[in-house]
Amino acid sequence: MKPLNPIRLSGREVLPLIEGGKGISISNGESSGAWSSAGGVGTFSAVNADALDAHGNLIPIVYKGKTRRERNRELIEYAIQGGITQAKIAHDRSNGQGRLHMNVLWEMAAVEEVLHGVLDQVSSLVHGVTCGAGMPYRIAQITASYGIYYYPIVSSGRAFRALWKRAYHKFPEWLGGVVYEDPWRAGGHNGLSNSEDPDKPEDPYPRVLELRQVMNEFGLSDVPIVMAGGVWYLREWTDWFDNPDLGPIAFQFGTRPLLTQESPISDAWKQRLLTLNPGDIYLNRFSPTGFYSSAVSNPFLDELKQRSARQVAYSVTPVGDHTEGFPVGARGRLVYLTAHDKEMAEGWVKLGFAEVLRTPDSTLIFVTPQKADEIRKDQIDCMGCLSACLFSNWAQTEEGTTGRKADPRSFCIQKTLQAISHSEEVDTQLMFAGHAAYRFAQDPFYAGGYIPTVKALVERLQTGD
Q: What is the pTM of this model?
C-alpha cells in the first residue's frame, strides 16, 4: 500500500484517520481520547452524552417535568452537562496527541444552545466540530466565535454549494474540512435526496470529485475532504491517495471503532457485530427525523416493517372504491375502506391486531393492544429530543407541535438509543451500523472474537488492513 502521509486538520498534522462521531453515548471521551492519543482525530458525540458525578458514576437521566417543554429543558441541561464531561475525559485520555472533535446533529433539540453550553466551558479542549443531519448553516458562525474549526457533513457537492453561498463564505479560515458521508454506506442517519434510489448505491468517487470541483470554485483546493461511509481496508482506497483531482483526503471510520476495548457499547452488541452477514444492514425510513437511516435488521426493525405493512388507506366519507364502512376506536366511528382492504383489516383484527391507529397520511395501521399502549405512552412521554419529530409531533417552536398528527409507524428514538447504549438489550432496540459492518465476520483481524484496543486498530489501519 502507498504510504499514509500526515494531513493538517484543525491546526495540526495528524494521521488522516478520523473516528466517526456516534450518539447517543457511543463515541465518548474514552474512545475518542484513545483515537486521538494514537495520532488521529478522535470524535466524541455531544448528542445526549453521558454525564458523570464527582466519583465517576453515571448520572442517570430521569425526567421529572410534567410537560414536554419541561422535559425538553431537562434534556438540554443533561446534554450540556454530558458534553462537558466527555470533552474533559477525551482531553485527559488523548495525552496531548492528535486532535479532538465534537459531533452534533443539526436536527437535535436546541443544538445551538447545547453547542454554546458545552463550548463556553471546554472550548480550549475541543479543536473541531462536525455537524450533519440537516443543513447546518450557523455552525460556522458558532464555532468561529470560539476559534474552533467546523466540519460540515454533506452527501453532495450541491449541498455544500448551498451552505457555502448562504453562510460559510463568511468564515473560510475556520473551515477545517468537509465530510462527505456516503448516503448508502454510512451508518446512522443518511442524507439521501428524493431523487436518489435507496436501492441503487452510487460510486462515491465521482460524487466526491464533484464536491472537490465545487470547493475549488470557491478557492478551497487545500481544504481536506473526509471520506465517510463504507471505508474498511485503506488498501481499497489507494487510488484516492495523493490524487491531484481529489486533493487532500482523510478517511473516517464509524463502524470499526465500535469493536474496540475502549468502545462503550455492551458486550452483547460487540458479539452481535461479529455475527453479521451481507444484507443484515437495512436502510430504512422509520426514523422520526424523516431521514433514511442505516441499522442492523433485527426484531426491532422487523416489528416496524410489519406495523407499516398492516396498513390501509381510508376515507371519512364514502368516495370512489372506498365504500365499505369499518368501525374505528372505542366509539366505533365509521371510516371507509375498499372491499379488499376491509377484508385484510378484518383478518388482522382476528389475528390479535385489534387496535387501529390513524397516521398523518390518512391510513390506518393495526397493532396489538399492548403495542398500542406502548406507542401512546412513548408519544405522551416525549421530551423533545429533536427539533421536529414525526412520531410525537413535537416541534421546537412556540406552538410546540408540527401541526400534523403523530405518526405511529415511527418510534421514540431517544428511548431506544438510550436503551441500547446503557443495557445489554440488542435485538429489541435500534442498532445503528454502517453498511460494511458484516465485514467484522470476514476480517481475519477479528478471528476468534478478538477485540482490539483503539491503538491496535489504528496501527492495523495504517498497514492497509
A: 0.94
Quote the longest CA-to-CA distance of the chain.
Answer: 72
Domain-embedded: residue 427: no
CA 413 to mean position of chain CA atoms? 10
pLDDT digits (tens, 9 = 90+) for 119-144: 999 999 999 999 988 788 899 999 99
Residue 84 burial by Cβ neighbours in a 10 Å radius (0-12, 13-18, 19+): buried
Task: Based on the fold, state whether residues 360 and 262 are members of the same structural domain.
Answer: no
For residues 331-366, one letter each, b for 16 or more C-beta atoms within 10 angstroms of the residue's C-beta and e for the rest, the string is: eeeebbbbeebbeebeebeeeebebbbbbeeeebbb
**Do residue 208 and residue 315 come from a single domain?**
no
pLDDT tens-digit map of 223-281: 999 999 999 999 999 999 999 999 999 999 999 999 999 999 999 999 999 999 999 99
Same domain, 345 and 255: no
Task: Identify the domain containing residue 345 by its residue range.
Answer: 299-421
Calpha distance 18→193 (Å, rounded)? 25
CB of 230 closer than 8 Å to CB of 202: no
Asked if 115 and 131 count as a contact pair (C-beta separation under 8 A), the reply is no
Domain-located, residue 272 = no
C-alpha cell at 332: 366505533
